Amino acid sequence: MNLDVIAGLSLVVILTLAGLAVWRPLVGRAPRLGRRVVCLGVALLVAVALVGFGAYRLMNARSVQLLGHEVASVTTDTKVVALTFDDGPSGAYVDAVLADLRTYRARGTFFVVGSTAEQEGPALRALVASGQEIGNHGFSHARLVFVSTGAVAREVESTDRVIRAAGYLGPILFRPPFGKRLLSAPYYLWQHDRTTVMWDLEPDSIRAIADDPRAMAEYVAENANPGSIVLLHVWSRSRSASRAALPLILRALTNKGYRLVTVTELLNGA
Length: 270
Ligand SMILES: [Zn+2]
Hints:
Oligomer: single chain
Low-confidence stretches: none
Number of strands: 7
Radius of gyration: 22 Å
Order of helices and strands: HHEEHEHHEHHEHEHEH
Distance between the termini: 39 Å
Bound molecules: zinc ion
Largest sheet: 5 strands, parallel
């Protein structure tokens, strides 16, 4: 069953009917056939545009989801921030990333891609062994929109298996690839009582500062609030600026009195 498609088509039908209902009083009681066809066409176009716009906003929204528990930040008075790392992991950089975290007594939350984590077993096990939180970022990193709930289940559950096989015992939070979801993914996650984790700060997605480690650290220090969730990408070769920013971000937040905790700690009121 493809909930995303059903929801989209239902909305088109509803909006078309609503459009016609509004149009009718404006153009008279019994429009001629030609006019009627024009009315229907316009109403349909408006409906499709509205649904497209609404669906796009919804699948990219950081803190709106139709079903299930989703979090982009936490309301707290305690000075805690969660650093989260998407994709990967990679054996090429795991030691450096862990060393940075250790220096600042920080723990991170790593949303790993199942297929990558399977190939990078030692890196995943190193994250687990050092007490990091491991989250699920899908198995193939495919966008989970306009897909069936069965496809969502396969993406999520095969990644869970890889994470458990590395000896990870904690709760496994979920972050959709590209932060995109519509209805199938939220429905599946709601049915399985899984929490979706988004973010409120993403320094390395801001083009103007993404190549400048110092600027990224300043941005995070200036914009972080108690309970913020920061998204970083440190695993690909092209992300050297993000890797260089990590110790600067850790230092800047620590200097401002923040403790760096995992997302689960944040949710549990660390
Ligand atoms: Zn990703």
